[in-house]
Protein backbone atom coordinates (compact mmCIF):
# COMPACT_ATOMS: atom_id res chain seq x y z
CA UNK A 1 0.00 0.00 0.00
CA UNK A 2 3.03 2.24 0.10
CA UNK A 3 3.20 5.63 1.71
CA UNK A 4 -0.02 6.77 3.33
CA UNK A 5 1.15 10.24 4.25
CA UNK A 6 -1.61 12.72 3.47
CA UNK A 7 -0.50 15.75 1.51
CA UNK A 8 -1.47 19.10 2.92
CA UNK A 9 -1.30 22.88 2.32
CA UNK A 10 2.18 23.84 1.21
CA UNK A 11 3.10 20.34 0.06
CA UNK A 12 4.47 19.94 -3.43
CA UNK A 13 2.57 17.98 -6.05
CA UNK A 14 4.17 14.56 -6.16
CA UNK A 15 6.04 13.84 -9.38
CA UNK A 16 5.69 10.46 -11.04
CA UNK A 17 7.45 9.02 -14.05
CA UNK A 18 5.52 9.19 -17.33
CA UNK A 19 4.46 5.58 -16.81
CA UNK A 20 0.81 5.77 -17.93
CA UNK A 21 -0.32 4.47 -14.55
CA UNK A 22 -3.64 5.73 -13.13
CA UNK A 23 -3.49 8.18 -10.24
CA UNK A 24 -6.03 7.79 -7.48
CA UNK A 25 -6.49 10.75 -5.13
CA UNK A 26 -7.76 9.30 -1.91
CA UNK A 27 -8.05 9.60 1.83
CA UNK A 28 -7.01 6.51 3.77
CA UNK A 29 -10.14 6.39 5.97
CA UNK A 30 -12.78 7.48 3.44
CA UNK A 31 -15.26 4.68 2.70
CA UNK A 32 -16.13 6.12 -0.72
CA UNK A 33 -12.47 6.18 -1.76
CA UNK A 34 -12.18 2.67 -0.28
CA UNK A 35 -14.62 1.47 -2.95
CA UNK A 36 -12.28 2.55 -5.73
CA UNK A 37 -9.24 0.94 -4.08
CA UNK A 38 -11.20 -2.32 -3.89
CA UNK A 39 -12.18 -2.30 -7.57
CA UNK A 40 -8.65 -1.40 -8.71
CA UNK A 41 -7.18 -4.13 -6.52
CA UNK A 42 -9.83 -6.70 -7.50
CA UNK A 43 -8.97 -6.13 -11.15
CA UNK A 44 -5.24 -5.95 -10.40
CA UNK A 45 -4.99 -2.58 -12.12
CA UNK A 46 -1.81 -0.81 -11.01
CA UNK A 47 -2.26 2.72 -9.65
CA UNK A 48 -0.51 5.44 -7.73
CA UNK A 49 -2.44 6.33 -4.57
CA UNK A 50 -2.05 9.96 -3.54
CA UNK A 51 -3.54 10.75 -0.14
CA UNK A 52 -5.00 14.17 0.57
CA UNK A 53 -5.54 15.90 3.92
CA UNK A 54 -9.17 16.92 3.46
CA UNK A 55 -9.06 19.65 6.11
CA UNK A 56 -6.02 21.34 4.62
CA UNK A 57 -6.04 20.49 0.95
CA UNK A 58 -2.93 21.35 -1.02
CA UNK A 59 -3.47 24.15 -3.54
CA UNK A 60 -2.31 22.14 -6.54
CA UNK A 61 -5.15 19.65 -5.95
CA UNK A 62 -7.76 22.15 -7.21
CA UNK A 63 -5.86 22.30 -10.50
CA UNK A 64 -5.95 18.51 -10.79
CA UNK A 65 -9.66 18.25 -9.90
CA UNK A 66 -11.80 21.36 -9.60
CA UNK A 67 -14.20 19.65 -7.17
CA UNK A 68 -11.22 18.88 -4.84
CA UNK A 69 -13.07 15.78 -3.63
CA UNK A 70 -11.84 12.27 -3.10
CA UNK A 71 -12.00 9.76 -4.60
CA UNK A 72 -10.75 11.28 -7.85
CA UNK A 73 -9.18 9.18 -10.57
CA UNK A 74 -6.78 10.83 -13.00
CA UNK A 75 -6.65 9.12 -16.37
CA UNK A 76 -3.09 9.95 -17.26
CA UNK A 77 -3.17 8.18 -20.63
CA UNK A 78 -6.17 10.14 -21.95
CA UNK A 79 -5.64 13.51 -23.67
CA UNK A 80 -5.86 16.38 -21.19
CA UNK A 81 -5.56 14.01 -18.20
CA UNK A 82 -9.28 14.01 -17.35
CA UNK A 83 -10.26 13.35 -13.74
CA UNK A 84 -13.28 11.25 -12.77
CA UNK A 85 -15.16 11.78 -9.51
CA UNK A 86 -18.05 10.02 -7.67
CA UNK A 87 -17.16 6.57 -6.34
CA UNK A 88 -19.90 4.59 -8.11
CA UNK A 89 -19.31 6.30 -11.44
CA UNK A 90 -15.55 5.68 -11.19
CA UNK A 91 -16.10 2.01 -10.33
CA UNK A 92 -18.57 1.52 -13.21
CA UNK A 93 -16.06 3.13 -15.56
CA UNK A 94 -13.28 0.82 -14.37
CA UNK A 95 -15.50 -2.22 -14.81
CA UNK A 96 -16.23 -1.35 -18.43
CA UNK A 97 -12.72 -0.16 -19.26
CA UNK A 98 -11.00 -3.18 -17.70
CA UNK A 99 -13.37 -6.06 -18.43
CA UNK A 100 -10.92 -8.87 -17.60
CA UNK A 101 -12.34 -9.43 -14.09
CA UNK A 102 -16.00 -8.48 -14.67
CA UNK A 103 -17.76 -7.34 -11.52
CA UNK A 104 -21.31 -7.05 -12.89
CA UNK A 105 -23.52 -9.78 -14.34
CA UNK A 106 -23.43 -9.65 -18.16
CA UNK A 107 -27.24 -9.71 -18.39
CA UNK A 108 -28.52 -6.10 -18.55
CA UNK A 109 -31.53 -6.69 -16.29
CA UNK A 110 -29.44 -8.47 -13.64
CA UNK A 111 -26.82 -5.72 -13.83
CA UNK A 112 -29.54 -3.10 -13.38
CA UNK A 113 -30.98 -4.92 -10.37
CA UNK A 114 -27.49 -5.00 -8.86
CA UNK A 115 -27.21 -1.23 -9.34
CA UNK A 116 -30.53 -0.72 -7.54
CA UNK A 117 -29.25 -2.76 -4.58
CA UNK A 118 -26.03 -0.70 -4.54
CA UNK A 119 -27.97 2.57 -4.59
CA UNK A 120 -30.26 1.38 -1.80
CA UNK A 121 -27.36 0.26 0.33
CA UNK A 122 -25.91 3.75 0.03
CA UNK A 123 -29.15 5.24 1.34
CA UNK A 124 -29.34 2.79 4.27
CA UNK A 125 -25.80 3.51 5.22
CA UNK A 126 -26.09 7.28 5.12
CA UNK A 127 -29.17 7.05 7.37
CA UNK A 128 -27.33 4.61 9.61
CA UNK A 129 -24.25 6.75 10.15
CA UNK A 130 -26.34 9.87 10.49
CA UNK A 131 -28.30 8.28 13.32
CA UNK A 132 -25.26 6.83 15.03
CA UNK A 133 -23.46 10.15 14.97
CA UNK A 134 -26.28 12.62 15.62
CA UNK A 135 -28.96 11.10 17.82
CA UNK A 136 -28.33 10.83 21.51
CA UNK A 137 -28.05 7.31 22.86
CA UNK A 138 -31.40 7.34 24.64
CA UNK A 139 -33.24 7.99 21.42
CA UNK A 140 -31.21 5.29 19.69
CA UNK A 141 -32.34 2.55 22.08
CA UNK A 142 -35.69 2.33 20.32
CA UNK A 143 -34.36 2.68 16.79
CA UNK A 144 -33.85 -0.45 14.73
CA UNK A 145 -30.59 0.72 13.21
CA UNK A 146 -29.90 -2.37 11.13
CA UNK A 147 -33.45 -2.59 9.69
CA UNK A 148 -32.18 -1.62 6.23
CA UNK A 149 -29.65 -4.45 6.30
CA UNK A 150 -32.32 -7.15 6.56
CA UNK A 151 -33.05 -6.96 2.81
CA UNK A 152 -29.38 -7.79 2.09
CA UNK A 153 -29.38 -10.71 4.53
CA UNK A 154 -32.45 -12.07 2.76
CA UNK A 155 -31.13 -11.38 -0.71
CA UNK A 156 -27.87 -13.24 -0.13
CA UNK A 157 -29.68 -16.11 1.56
CA UNK A 158 -32.00 -16.35 -1.44
CA UNK A 159 -29.09 -16.34 -3.87
CA UNK A 160 -27.45 -19.16 -1.94
CA UNK A 161 -24.00 -18.11 -3.17
CA UNK A 162 -20.89 -17.24 -1.17
CA UNK A 163 -20.93 -13.66 -2.38
CA UNK A 164 -23.56 -11.42 -3.96
CA UNK A 165 -21.41 -11.74 -7.09
CA UNK A 166 -21.53 -15.57 -6.97
CA UNK A 167 -18.39 -17.63 -6.32
CA UNK A 168 -16.31 -14.44 -6.05
CA UNK A 169 -17.12 -10.88 -4.95
CA UNK A 170 -18.87 -8.66 -7.49
CA UNK A 171 -19.64 -4.97 -7.64
CA UNK A 172 -22.36 -5.11 -4.97
CA UNK A 173 -20.01 -6.93 -2.55
CA UNK A 174 -17.27 -4.34 -3.03
CA UNK A 175 -19.60 -1.32 -2.93
CA UNK A 176 -21.05 -2.52 0.42
CA UNK A 177 -17.77 -3.58 1.95
CA UNK A 178 -16.24 -0.29 3.17
CA UNK A 179 -19.15 0.24 5.57
CA UNK A 180 -19.41 -3.40 6.56
CA UNK A 181 -15.71 -3.31 7.48
CA UNK A 182 -16.45 -0.23 9.61
CA UNK A 183 -19.35 -1.84 11.51
CA UNK A 184 -16.62 -3.51 13.59
CA UNK A 185 -15.44 -0.09 14.78
CA UNK A 186 -18.76 1.00 16.24
CA UNK A 187 -18.44 -0.98 19.46
CA UNK A 188 -15.22 0.90 20.21
CA UNK A 189 -16.49 4.36 19.30
CA UNK A 190 -20.02 3.89 20.60
CA UNK A 191 -21.50 0.79 22.09
CA UNK A 192 -21.47 -3.04 22.10
CA UNK A 193 -25.00 -3.03 20.75
CA UNK A 194 -23.69 -2.23 17.27
CA UNK A 195 -22.16 -5.68 16.93
CA UNK A 196 -24.02 -7.52 14.15
CA UNK A 197 -26.35 -10.08 15.68
CA UNK A 198 -25.57 -13.68 14.58
CA UNK A 199 -29.23 -14.59 15.06
CA UNK A 200 -30.43 -11.84 12.76
CA UNK A 201 -27.61 -11.77 10.20
CA UNK A 202 -26.16 -15.31 9.96
CA UNK A 203 -25.71 -15.14 6.17
CA UNK A 204 -24.06 -11.70 6.19
CA UNK A 205 -21.71 -12.74 8.99
CA UNK A 206 -20.59 -15.76 6.96
CA UNK A 207 -20.21 -13.41 3.99
CA UNK A 208 -18.12 -10.98 6.02
CA UNK A 209 -15.74 -13.77 7.04
CA UNK A 210 -15.36 -14.82 3.41
CA UNK A 211 -14.83 -11.23 2.29
CA UNK A 212 -12.01 -10.93 4.81
CA UNK A 213 -10.15 -13.60 2.83
CA UNK A 214 -10.49 -11.79 -0.50
CA UNK A 215 -7.18 -10.41 -1.81
CA UNK A 216 -8.58 -6.95 -2.63
CA UNK A 217 -10.27 -6.64 0.76
CA UNK A 218 -7.09 -7.77 2.53
CA UNK A 219 -4.96 -5.26 0.67
CA UNK A 220 -6.77 -2.23 2.10
CA UNK A 221 -8.12 -3.73 5.31
CA UNK A 222 -8.06 -2.02 8.69
CA UNK A 223 -9.49 -3.60 11.82
CA UNK A 224 -12.29 -2.13 13.91
CA UNK A 225 -9.90 -0.61 16.42
CA UNK A 226 -7.93 1.27 13.76
CA UNK A 227 -11.11 2.65 12.20
CA UNK A 228 -12.36 3.65 15.65
CA UNK A 229 -9.10 5.39 16.46
CA UNK A 230 -9.34 7.51 13.33
CA UNK A 231 -13.04 8.29 13.93
CA UNK A 232 -12.28 9.30 17.51
CA UNK A 233 -9.61 11.71 16.29
CA UNK A 234 -12.06 13.19 13.80
CA UNK A 235 -14.76 13.54 16.45
CA UNK A 236 -12.33 15.34 18.69
CA UNK A 237 -11.91 17.96 15.94
CA UNK A 238 -8.43 16.98 14.83
CA UNK A 239 -8.65 14.19 12.25
CA UNK A 240 -5.44 12.15 12.42
CA UNK A 241 -5.01 11.50 8.70
CA UNK A 242 -1.42 10.36 9.13
CA UNK A 243 -2.16 7.90 11.93
CA UNK A 244 -0.99 4.86 9.94
CA UNK A 245 1.96 6.71 8.42
CA UNK A 246 3.22 7.83 11.81
CA UNK A 247 2.72 4.38 13.31
CA UNK A 248 4.71 2.79 10.48
CA UNK A 249 7.46 5.36 10.94
CA UNK A 250 7.60 4.67 14.66
CA UNK A 251 7.89 0.93 13.97
CA UNK A 252 10.70 1.55 11.47
CA UNK A 253 12.61 3.77 13.86
CA UNK A 254 11.96 1.07 16.47
CA UNK B 1 -50.82 11.45 -22.05
CA UNK B 2 -54.16 9.86 -21.37
CA UNK B 3 -55.80 9.66 -18.00
CA UNK B 4 -53.86 11.33 -15.23
CA UNK B 5 -56.13 10.29 -12.38
CA UNK B 6 -53.99 9.22 -9.43
CA UNK B 7 -54.97 5.90 -7.91
CA UNK B 8 -55.49 5.87 -4.18
CA UNK B 9 -56.36 3.65 -1.18
CA UNK B 10 -59.25 1.40 -2.07
CA UNK B 11 -58.74 1.72 -5.82
CA UNK B 12 -58.52 -1.45 -7.85
CA UNK B 13 -55.35 -2.36 -9.67
CA UNK B 14 -55.86 -1.36 -13.29
CA UNK B 15 -56.10 -4.27 -15.69
CA UNK B 16 -54.31 -4.11 -19.00
CA UNK B 17 -54.37 -6.50 -21.93
CA UNK B 18 -51.43 -8.90 -22.13
CA UNK B 19 -49.79 -6.60 -24.66
CA UNK B 20 -46.18 -6.75 -23.45
CA UNK B 21 -46.15 -2.96 -23.02
CA UNK B 22 -44.06 -1.48 -20.20
CA UNK B 23 -45.91 -0.12 -17.18
CA UNK B 24 -44.62 3.07 -15.61
CA UNK B 25 -45.86 3.89 -12.12
CA UNK B 26 -45.61 7.62 -11.80
CA UNK B 27 -46.88 10.79 -10.19
CA UNK B 28 -47.76 13.58 -12.61
CA UNK B 29 -45.81 16.29 -10.78
CA UNK B 30 -42.77 14.29 -9.66
CA UNK B 31 -39.58 15.52 -11.37
CA UNK B 32 -37.86 12.16 -10.92
CA UNK B 33 -40.73 10.32 -12.63
CA UNK B 34 -40.67 13.07 -15.27
CA UNK B 35 -37.18 11.93 -16.25
CA UNK B 36 -38.46 8.46 -17.15
CA UNK B 37 -41.39 9.84 -19.16
CA UNK B 38 -38.91 11.94 -21.15
CA UNK B 39 -36.64 9.01 -21.97
CA UNK B 40 -39.54 6.74 -22.94
CA UNK B 41 -41.02 9.47 -25.13
CA UNK B 42 -37.66 10.43 -26.65
CA UNK B 43 -37.16 6.82 -27.69
CA UNK B 44 -40.80 6.45 -28.72
CA UNK B 45 -41.19 3.42 -26.50
CA UNK B 46 -44.90 2.78 -25.82
CA UNK B 47 -45.88 2.50 -22.15
CA UNK B 48 -48.85 2.50 -19.85
CA UNK B 49 -48.58 5.32 -17.30
CA UNK B 50 -50.22 4.51 -13.97
CA UNK B 51 -50.39 7.46 -11.60
CA UNK B 52 -50.23 6.91 -7.85
CA UNK B 53 -51.47 9.17 -5.04
CA UNK B 54 -48.31 9.22 -2.93
CA UNK B 55 -50.11 10.28 0.27
CA UNK B 56 -52.67 7.47 0.07
CA UNK B 57 -51.01 4.71 -1.88
CA UNK B 58 -53.24 1.83 -3.01
CA UNK B 59 -52.49 -1.42 -1.19
CA UNK B 60 -51.84 -3.41 -4.38
CA UNK B 61 -48.92 -1.09 -5.23
CA UNK B 62 -46.76 -2.62 -2.50
CA UNK B 63 -47.21 -5.99 -4.20
CA UNK B 64 -46.06 -4.54 -7.52
CA UNK B 65 -43.06 -2.74 -6.01
CA UNK B 66 -42.03 -3.34 -2.41
CA UNK B 67 -40.43 0.12 -2.16
CA UNK B 68 -43.78 1.74 -3.21
CA UNK B 69 -41.85 4.59 -4.76
CA UNK B 70 -42.26 6.32 -8.08
CA UNK B 71 -40.93 6.17 -10.67
CA UNK B 72 -41.16 2.38 -10.92
CA UNK B 73 -40.98 0.57 -14.22
CA UNK B 74 -42.59 -2.85 -14.53
CA UNK B 75 -40.97 -5.02 -17.18
CA UNK B 76 -44.01 -7.05 -18.14
CA UNK B 77 -42.18 -9.14 -20.75
CA UNK B 78 -39.51 -10.38 -18.32
CA UNK B 79 -40.15 -13.51 -16.22
CA UNK B 80 -41.63 -12.56 -12.84
CA UNK B 81 -42.45 -9.01 -14.02
CA UNK B 82 -39.49 -7.37 -12.28
CA UNK B 83 -39.84 -3.73 -11.28
CA UNK B 84 -37.02 -1.21 -11.60
CA UNK B 85 -36.73 1.83 -9.34
CA UNK B 86 -34.46 4.92 -9.12
CA UNK B 87 -34.89 7.37 -12.00
CA UNK B 88 -31.28 7.42 -13.23
CA UNK B 89 -30.95 3.64 -13.10
CA UNK B 90 -34.22 3.19 -15.01
CA UNK B 91 -33.14 5.70 -17.67
CA UNK B 92 -29.73 4.06 -18.09
CA UNK B 93 -31.45 0.67 -18.44
CA UNK B 94 -33.81 2.04 -21.11
CA UNK B 95 -30.91 3.56 -23.02
CA UNK B 96 -29.08 0.26 -23.18
CA UNK B 97 -32.17 -1.87 -23.80
CA UNK B 98 -33.56 0.37 -26.56
CA UNK B 99 -30.44 1.62 -28.35
CA UNK B 100 -32.25 2.99 -31.45
CA UNK B 101 -32.18 6.60 -30.20
CA UNK B 102 -28.96 6.58 -28.16
CA UNK B 103 -28.88 9.23 -25.45
CA UNK B 104 -25.30 8.82 -24.29
CA UNK B 105 -22.08 9.32 -26.27
CA UNK B 106 -20.72 5.95 -27.45
CA UNK B 107 -17.24 6.73 -26.10
CA UNK B 108 -16.92 5.31 -22.56
CA UNK B 109 -14.99 8.28 -21.16
CA UNK B 110 -17.42 10.83 -22.62
CA UNK B 111 -20.36 8.78 -21.33
CA UNK B 112 -18.77 8.69 -17.87
CA UNK B 113 -18.18 12.45 -17.89
CA UNK B 114 -21.86 12.92 -18.80
CA UNK B 115 -22.85 10.77 -15.82
CA UNK B 116 -20.73 12.91 -13.50
CA UNK B 117 -22.50 16.05 -14.77
CA UNK B 118 -25.90 14.36 -14.23
CA UNK B 119 -24.96 13.36 -10.69
CA UNK B 120 -23.68 16.85 -9.89
CA UNK B 121 -26.82 18.47 -11.28
CA UNK B 122 -28.89 16.31 -8.93
CA UNK B 123 -26.86 17.58 -5.98
CA UNK B 124 -27.20 21.22 -7.03
CA UNK B 125 -30.92 20.83 -7.48
CA UNK B 126 -31.55 19.16 -4.15
CA UNK B 127 -29.63 21.96 -2.40
CA UNK B 128 -31.51 24.52 -4.48
CA UNK B 129 -34.99 23.27 -3.63
CA UNK B 130 -34.03 22.72 -0.02
CA UNK B 131 -32.98 26.34 0.30
CA UNK B 132 -36.00 27.68 -1.56
CA UNK B 133 -38.38 25.71 0.60
CA UNK B 134 -36.73 25.87 4.02
CA UNK B 135 -34.85 29.12 4.45
CA UNK B 136 -36.78 32.27 5.20
CA UNK B 137 -36.66 34.92 2.49
CA UNK B 138 -34.38 37.27 4.40
CA UNK B 139 -31.67 34.66 4.62
CA UNK B 140 -32.13 33.87 0.94
CA UNK B 141 -31.35 37.42 -0.19
CA UNK B 142 -27.65 36.84 0.33
CA UNK B 143 -27.57 33.31 -1.05
CA UNK B 144 -26.45 32.78 -4.62
CA UNK B 145 -29.05 30.13 -5.40
CA UNK B 146 -28.08 29.55 -9.00
CA UNK B 147 -24.34 29.31 -8.29
CA UNK B 148 -24.38 25.58 -9.09
CA UNK B 149 -25.93 26.24 -12.50
CA UNK B 150 -22.99 28.34 -13.69
CA UNK B 151 -20.94 25.22 -14.46
CA UNK B 152 -23.71 24.05 -16.84
CA UNK B 153 -23.92 27.44 -18.56
CA UNK B 154 -20.15 27.29 -19.11
CA UNK B 155 -20.18 23.66 -20.17
CA UNK B 156 -22.83 24.18 -22.87
CA UNK B 157 -21.15 27.37 -24.07
CA UNK B 158 -17.87 25.45 -24.37
CA UNK B 159 -19.53 22.64 -26.29
CA UNK B 160 -21.03 25.13 -28.73
CA UNK B 161 -23.89 22.75 -29.56
CA UNK B 162 -27.63 23.31 -29.34
CA UNK B 163 -28.01 20.69 -26.65
CA UNK B 164 -25.62 18.99 -24.23
CA UNK B 165 -26.24 15.91 -26.37
CA UNK B 166 -25.24 17.74 -29.55
CA UNK B 167 -27.77 18.42 -32.33
CA UNK B 168 -30.52 16.72 -30.32
CA UNK B 169 -31.11 16.30 -26.58
CA UNK B 170 -29.12 13.58 -24.84
CA UNK B 171 -29.30 12.00 -21.40
CA UNK B 172 -27.89 15.05 -19.59
CA UNK B 173 -30.45 17.34 -21.25
CA UNK B 174 -33.34 15.10 -20.25
CA UNK B 175 -32.08 14.42 -16.73
CA UNK B 176 -31.76 18.18 -16.07
CA UNK B 177 -35.00 19.17 -17.76
CA UNK B 178 -37.66 18.39 -15.11
CA UNK B 179 -36.12 20.94 -12.73
CA UNK B 180 -35.37 23.48 -15.44
CA UNK B 181 -39.03 23.29 -16.47
CA UNK B 182 -39.97 23.95 -12.84
CA UNK B 183 -37.71 27.02 -12.48
CA UNK B 184 -40.53 28.88 -14.28
CA UNK B 185 -42.90 28.09 -11.41
CA UNK B 186 -40.77 29.70 -8.70
CA UNK B 187 -41.80 33.26 -9.46
CA UNK B 188 -45.42 32.26 -8.82
CA UNK B 189 -44.79 30.27 -5.67
CA UNK B 190 -42.05 32.48 -4.27
CA UNK B 191 -40.53 35.51 -5.89
CA UNK B 192 -39.62 37.18 -9.19
CA UNK B 193 -35.96 36.90 -8.28
CA UNK B 194 -35.99 33.21 -9.22
CA UNK B 195 -36.36 34.08 -12.90
CA UNK B 196 -33.17 32.98 -14.70
CA UNK B 197 -31.04 36.00 -15.48
CA UNK B 198 -30.43 36.47 -19.24
CA UNK B 199 -27.13 38.18 -18.46
CA UNK B 200 -25.89 35.30 -16.41
CA UNK B 201 -27.40 32.36 -18.29
CA UNK B 202 -27.72 33.35 -21.96
CA UNK B 203 -26.71 29.91 -23.24
CA UNK B 204 -29.04 28.00 -20.92
CA UNK B 205 -31.96 30.28 -21.79
CA UNK B 206 -31.41 29.58 -25.49
CA UNK B 207 -31.16 25.89 -24.61
CA UNK B 208 -34.43 26.05 -22.64
CA UNK B 209 -36.23 27.56 -25.63
CA UNK B 210 -34.91 24.81 -27.89
CA UNK B 211 -35.85 22.12 -25.36
CA UNK B 212 -39.41 23.44 -25.36
CA UNK B 213 -39.63 22.46 -29.02
CA UNK B 214 -38.49 18.87 -28.44
CA UNK B 215 -41.27 16.31 -28.96
CA UNK B 216 -40.56 14.42 -25.72
CA UNK B 217 -40.45 17.63 -23.68
CA UNK B 218 -43.68 18.86 -25.28
CA UNK B 219 -45.47 15.62 -24.57
CA UNK B 220 -45.18 15.94 -20.80
CA UNK B 221 -44.84 19.70 -20.50
CA UNK B 222 -46.62 21.86 -17.94
CA UNK B 223 -46.15 25.60 -17.69
CA UNK B 224 -44.85 27.45 -14.64
CA UNK B 225 -48.32 28.34 -13.43
CA UNK B 226 -49.51 24.73 -13.45
CA UNK B 227 -46.42 23.57 -11.56
CA UNK B 228 -46.89 26.41 -9.07
CA UNK B 229 -50.54 25.52 -8.55
CA UNK B 230 -49.61 21.95 -7.67
CA UNK B 231 -46.76 23.05 -5.39
CA UNK B 232 -49.07 25.48 -3.60
CA UNK B 233 -51.57 22.69 -2.97
CA UNK B 234 -48.80 20.50 -1.58
CA UNK B 235 -47.49 23.30 0.62
CA UNK B 236 -50.98 23.83 2.01
CA UNK B 237 -50.93 20.20 3.19
CA UNK B 238 -53.35 18.79 0.64
CA UNK B 239 -51.50 17.88 -2.55
CA UNK B 240 -53.90 18.12 -5.47
CA UNK B 241 -52.69 15.10 -7.42
CA UNK B 242 -55.79 15.08 -9.65
CA UNK B 243 -55.58 18.77 -10.56
CA UNK B 244 -55.09 18.12 -14.28
CA UNK B 245 -57.57 15.25 -14.35
CA UNK B 246 -60.28 17.35 -12.75
CA UNK B 247 -59.54 20.31 -15.01
CA UNK B 248 -59.82 18.09 -18.09
CA UNK B 249 -63.09 16.64 -16.78
CA UNK B 250 -64.48 20.13 -16.21
CA UNK B 251 -63.52 21.10 -19.75
CA UNK B 252 -65.21 17.98 -21.13
CA UNK B 253 -68.40 18.58 -19.15
CA UNK B 254 -68.07 22.20 -20.35
UniProtKB/TrEMBL annotation, chains A, B:
Keyword set includes Ligase: no
GO cellular component, one term: cytoplasm
GO BP terms, alphabetized: glutathione metabolic process
Positions of the GST C-terminal domain: 107-231
Record's keyword terms, sorted: Oxidoreductase, Transferase
Coiled coil ranges: none
Signal sequence region: none
Ranges where the GST N-terminal domain occurs: 20-102
UniProt keyword annotation of Transferase present: yes
Family assignment from sequence similarity: Belongs to the GST superfamily. Omega family.
Protein name: Uncharacterized protein
Organism: Drosophila yakuba (Fruit fly)
Amino acid sequence: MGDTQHLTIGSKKPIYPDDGILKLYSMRFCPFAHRVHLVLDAKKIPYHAIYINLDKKPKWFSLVSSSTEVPALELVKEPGNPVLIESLIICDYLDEKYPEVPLYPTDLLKKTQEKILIERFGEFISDFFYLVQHEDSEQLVDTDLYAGLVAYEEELKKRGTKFFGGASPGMLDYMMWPWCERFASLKFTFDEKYVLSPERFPTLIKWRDLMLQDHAVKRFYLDGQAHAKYVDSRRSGNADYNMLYNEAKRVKLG
